[in-house]
Design a protein that fits this description.
- By secondary structure, the chain is α+β, with helices and mostly antiparallel strands.
- It folds into four domains: 299 residues, Hypothetical protein af1432 (Orthogonal Bundle), CATH 1.10.3210; 147 residues, Beta-Lactamase (2-Layer Sandwich), CATH 3.30.450.40; 79 residues; 146 residues, Heat Shock Protein 90, CATH 3.30.565.10.
- It contains 28 helices and 13 strands.
- Strands 3-2-1-6-5-4 form a six-stranded antiparallel beta sheet. A five-stranded mixed beta sheet has the order 8-10-11-13-12, covered by helices on one side. Strands 7-9 form a two-stranded antiparallel ribbon.
- A hairpin with a 2-residue loop joins strand 10 and strand 11.
- Helix 9 packs across helix 12 and helix 10 crosses helix 11.
- The chain is flat and about 115 Å long.
- The N terminus is likely disordered.
Length: 742
């Protein structure tokens, strides 16, 4: 009893030692083959396909990786090569580099190992090639690549024993040779387990496909009997036959010294004839030689070759590490620079004054680049007698000053009016220093423009405490000032837009009788708005494009989620401003209508469909009543359908939560068709009703809607020689009456 317990404990220790292995070792000549390929800048896993398919350690590692990446599907043909094509290159590289390299080389004396690893590798290749040949001539045919790989891996239990317990494995092989016995029988006597059980344990741990696991486990068992009730064991049958044929051919060494004999039933169950086996034997030596050449097993002076490969790889890794270190420093600098720009952008919006923008930027500039005193001034307007500037003396003190622009020299030197450069401040801005009541360091003063669309909108003068930083930071200086220039351009354009808006309010505040209509139905108000829209578009669209483009570029290269969200918000807001400009232009300068005879029912159906698209409401309760005598209307159907859709959308919004019915009636009134659109929603008070059709008016909180729906509707109706009138009472609903000509 005690003896059995001792045997069981010994077997458990062996299994534990083997089970701890994460991979097998490969041979030095194999490493000498794959190291140069791994170090290629444009490394492709496919470059290693032949080597991996010929080496048991590498093949097992990659198959494990394929399994973890779910690239092995039941019922599909097995292929390491296809798996490599689908695996990410960095995962393959890491997996290959994690495989250890055995110390067994050509220079090792023959008695160093009872079973040299090279000889075992040749045996595995012989079994793999033989298994593939058998699979190809079987009827029905079996997946030959699957059979090949199973043959390559069939003895991983021996490789694992050699790896985990080299002295014990050497003793087992020596005893097998002395006794003319199989390695399996000696293993069972000395270890109370064997390489097939150990190989099975590893195959399960490494998630190898089931057919590989069975071949590793059963290739010394009665596979013919097992396969009758377990079809999955067919590959194990093939591997068992291939193992016996390879040993008969004397290719490599398996560690077994009993005489290999072929059971007649085994070949017969696989439908392989004696003649076919003879042909396989005749071609096997050449096939194995080709595979051995791929692995470099035929190379002389393997130790030197391997040493050169390792030295080359180490040199390449050292060079790559140096590059990565430099890149890491650059990324750290860029990350800090991004935080600088993020803080600046988060602190301003288009509603602030330009001088506030430059004040925030000047303060952030001094803080981030750790400069001395800073002065940032705006380019003066033509014929202006005042120049706005900001002075920052330390991190807590900044002030706005008003200066006189120079009379005999440009405020912004010609060298930087249209291009970026770093200039020495003294000699270029002496007029500035004469008016400031602070002392700049004459040796370290630098001058940089704030450019937007190829034009300097301002300039920043600062004390650079470490002159060598100018060249180091030049790229970041250029990026930071160009972003600040684009923001400043936007704010300046926004200020212009505010002036346009003030003029616009003055115009719409005039009594209606002071705004006579022209024959096209336009008013001086619309002419003024068209001019305002064109000016706003010119002033806003270019800086908006610059800001949006820069934000997109930064977002693509950014990995931080929070920073990417901020950049997306910048893009979304610039798109919103562009949409406002488009609305202004569309309202002030709409396309001329193209009237055609249009059926009123068809027009209303088109408007309902358009409303569903705009609001996202699939089922709109529109109750139509069309009188029998209603004529076709002579209008631009697209414009009028859009106008009616805007009115229907407002009716839907008026209900708030649950959407109530919208009643639409059509009858004849003189030379017009009269449409009435009524809802029972929230309605409007008198003050809201008076402003309802004014552009950009909305009773909703800021940021909800742009307030162009009813204004656009009235504009289209008037262009088509019709009229629009609204009646409404708060809490009782709204009725919109439209007259359209026949």
């Amino acid at each position: 009893m005690m003896e059995k317990l001792a045997d069981t404990t010994a077997a458990q220790r062996v299994e534990l030692a083997v089970y701890q292995l994460e991979s097998l070792s490969t041979l030095p000549p194999v490493a000498a083959r794959f190291f140069p390929k791994l170090m290629q800048p444009q490394f492709s896993p496919a470059d290693l396909a032949e080597i991996i398919e010929s080496d048991a350690a590498l093949a097992a590692k990659i198959i494990t990786l394929m399994s973890r990446q779910r690239l092995i599907a039941a019922g599909e043909k097995f292929s390491i090569r296809q798996g490599l094509d689908r695996l990410p290159a960095h995962l393959v590289r890491n997996a290959i580099l994690s495989v250890k390299v055995s110390g067994d080389t050509d220079s090792s004396p023959d008695n160093y190992r009872a079973l040299p690893r090279k000889q075992l590798a040749l045996h595995n290749l012989a079994v793999a090639c033989c298994a593939r040949n058998i699979a190809e001539i079987m009827s029905p045919k079996t997946d030959s690549q699957l059979a090949y790989t199973a043959g390559l891996l069939h003895d991983i239990g021996k490789l694992a024993l050699d790896e985990a317990m080299p002295k014990s494995f050497t003793r087992i092989i020596s005893d097998a040779k002395t006794q003319n016995a199989s390695a399996l029988s000696v293993e069972q006597k000395q270890l109370n387990t064997d390489h097939t059980i150990l190989g099975k344990r590893l195959a399960q741990k490494w998630h190898l496909p089931e057919q590989f696991t069975l071949a590793i486990w059963l290739h010394h068992s009665d596979t013919t009997a097992i396969a009758q009730s377990m079809p999955e064991a067919k590959i194990a049958q093939i591997v068992q036959l291939a193992d016996l044929v390879a040993r008969q051919c004397g290719i490599g060494q398996s560690g077994s010294y009993d005489k290999p004999t072929l059971p007649d039933l085994l070949a017969k169950s696989l439908a392989i004839s004696a003649e076919q086996l003879k042909q396989i034997r005749q071609s096997l030596t050449e096939q194995v030689a080709q595979k051995a050449k791929v692995l470099g097993l035929d190379l002389p002076a393997v130790a030197a070759t391997y040493g050169d490969a390792v030295h080359s790889a180490v040199s390449q890794l050292a060079e790559d590490n140096s590059k990565l270190s430099l890149e890491n420093r650059r990324l750290q600098m860029d990350s800090g620079h991004f935080d600088f720009m993020k803080d600046f952008l988060a602190s301003v919006d288009s509603a602030v004054s330009p001088v506030y923008v430059v004040e925030k930027f000047a303060g952030q500039w001094q803080k981030f680049y750790q400069t001395g005193k800073v002065c940032l001034y705006l380019a003066p307007e033509a014929d202006s007698q005042i120049l706005e500037a900001v002075v920052v003396e330390n991190l807590s003190q900044s002030r706005i000053v008003y200066l006189n622009p120079p009379t005999d020299t440009p405020a912004i030197p010609k060298e930087i009016q249209n291009d970026f450069a770093i200039l020495d401040a003294y000699g270029h801005t002496d007029w500035l220093f004469e008016q400031l009541d602070i002392d700049f360091d004459s040796d370290h003063g630098k001058l940089i423009p704030l450019l937007s669309r190829g034009k300097a909108l301002g300039a920043i003068v600062f004390e650079l405490r470490y002159p060598g930083d100018a060249e180091l930071f030049e790229r970041n200086f250029k990026t930071a000032t160009s972003i600040a220039g684009a923001v400043l351009d936007l704010v300046l354009a926004s200020a212009d837009r505010q002036r346009f808006a003030e003029q616009f309010v003055q115009l719409i505040s005039q009594p209606a009788q002071q705004q006579p209509k022209t024959q096209q139905g336009d008013t001086p108000l619309l002419d003024a708005m068209a001019e305002m829209a064109a000016g706003a578009a010119h002033e806003l669209n270019n800086p908006l494009s610059v800001i949006s483009g820069r934000a997109q570029l930064l977002e693509k290269s950014e990995t931080d989620t929070e920073k990417k969200q901020i950049l997306r918000q910048i893009q979304e807001n610039t798109n919103e401003i562009s949409a406002i400009v488009d609305d202004m232009i569309s309202f002030a300068e709409p396309p001329q209508p193209r009237p055609t005879q249009t059926n009123i029912k068809q027009l209303l159906d088109e408007a309902v469909q358009l409303t569903a698209q705009k609001t996202g409401v699939e089922h709109i309760d529109v109750q139509m009543e069309i009188a029998d005598n209603v004529e076709n209307v002579l209008v631009d159907s697209g414009q009028i359908a859009s106008a009616i859709a805007n009115i229907l959308s407002n009716s839907i919004e008026s209900y708030g939560g649950d959407i109530g019915p919208i009643k639409v009636t059509a009858d004849t009134a003189g030379n017009f068709v009269r449409l009435q659109i009524s809802d029972a929603g929230c309605g409007m008070d008198a003050e809201t009703l008076q402003k309802a059709t004014q552009p950009f008016f909305s009773a909703k909180p800021a940021g909800r809607k742009r307030g162009m729906g009813l204004a656009q509707a009235q504009r289209f109706v008037q262009l088509n020689k019709g009229s629009l009138d609204i009646t409404s009472e708060s809490g009782k609903g709204t009725t919109v009456t439209i007259l359209l000509p026949f």
